[in-house]
Each structure stands twice: as structure tokens, then as C-alpha cells.
Amino acid sequence: MTSIRAILFDKDGTLIDFDRTWGPAGYEVMRTLSRGDRMLLERLMSVSEYVEEERRFLPSSPLVGGSSAEYGPLWAEALGREPGPALYGEMDDLFRHWGLATLAPIFDPAAILGGLSARGLHLGIATNDAEASARAQAEALGLSGLCPFIAGYDSGFGSKPDPGMVTAFVRHHGLAPDEVAMIGDSVHDLAAARAAGVVAVGVLTGPLGHAARAAIEPYADHVVDTIADLPDWLDTLGPGAPAMSGLAAGQ
Fold it and tell me: Is the pTM of this model over 0.90?
């Protein structure tokens, strides 16, 4: 295999805990948009496949993998509002606010990605969240300096499973596709990776946990449990794999 020189990360379910972050955040967004009207709130929860008692979205929810532009029409109909940029922008602003308030990382992303950066790898984030929300969360997690490339559904590259964000990252660094790995917890992530010609690596930290393996394995070149396993995975690639620097190794 060609040496991996860059890694592009999905965000939700890969770097941050989807249920712990977006479960409570989504509830606050729906409460705000329903303006105290219980019937509107129940409509939003229904179309969103949201379990109020558990404060979480079902894994089959359109919010798990889709952008606000995709599930926005469902919310517009539930609210009796006009679908379009005005509503979707309001939704994105609310999700950015509440997503920061309830942000729950998976392990310590800054430490893990810092170690990967120390190997000389270029890093980035590609998410179906809005770019402003992704950048705000990256800043809160200490990832902004490690991931200068951050693309959301509204960044002009399309949304996953289309390969636009992945291809843009590859071109941004002037690399060949097989020098890049895409890390994600969903079929959307890995299908985008495959379509872009990069190495597709699945993680099992999304809403389905280890039960997602059967669904993602057909789309993945490799599957690891979590992002914490990536250094060991890179080491299995052989002599061409980027090595840990002396500083990062504590020498």
C-alpha cells in the first residue's frame, strides 16, 4: 500500500459522541422551534425519530447522517413553515449553539490527532454538519490548529455520501487519493471515501456501536474500534507508514 500522508475525519460518531452531544442538543433545538407548542414538538420528534424519554435519536433518524438541508423539509412541514434557507439557517444556528453546550468528545481527540500530526500527517474534518458548527466544535476541542481543512455540507463541496468533500481535501494537499484515508462511523462516510478513491477506514463509535460492523464492513478497507486505534493501524501498513516522532513518543 502507498504510504498514508493525510487523514480526513468524519466528526459525529467519530470524534464526538453523537448520542451524548446531539441527543440533548436536538431536544433543545426542537423545543425552541416549537415555541412552547407541545403538538409541534411532538411532530418534530416524530419525523426525527426521537425518543424523548431517552433524549436520543434512533439510529435510523434522518438526523444521524443527513444535513439540515436534507431533513429540513420534514421539519418545515411539521412546523407549518416555509422550507428553505431562512429556516435551515435558523436550525443551523440553534444546532451550533446547543451542540457546543452539550459537546461530548470520544476520548481525547486533541491528544490523538496531535500524535497523528506529529507523524507528519495532514489532518482535516468532513461533516454533514454546517461548517460554522464544525469549526466551533473543533475550536472547543482544540482541533483547529491540527485540522485547518474543515468542510461542512454548506462549504460548496456537497455532502456525504457524495465524494466532493473528500476530493477537495485530496486536492487541497496535492496528494494522490491512495495517500489519503477517510475515517468514519457510517456508510455515508465510507461510501464517500470509496467514491473518491481514498482508503476507507470504519470506526465503531457511532450510534450503533459495534453492531454497525456488519453494515460498514462492505464499504471499508479497514475497520478499527476507535480513533485511538489509528496509530497501531498505521504501524501495520509497513515501512512506508508515517512513523511517530521522538517527541511524540516521549523520547
Answer: yes
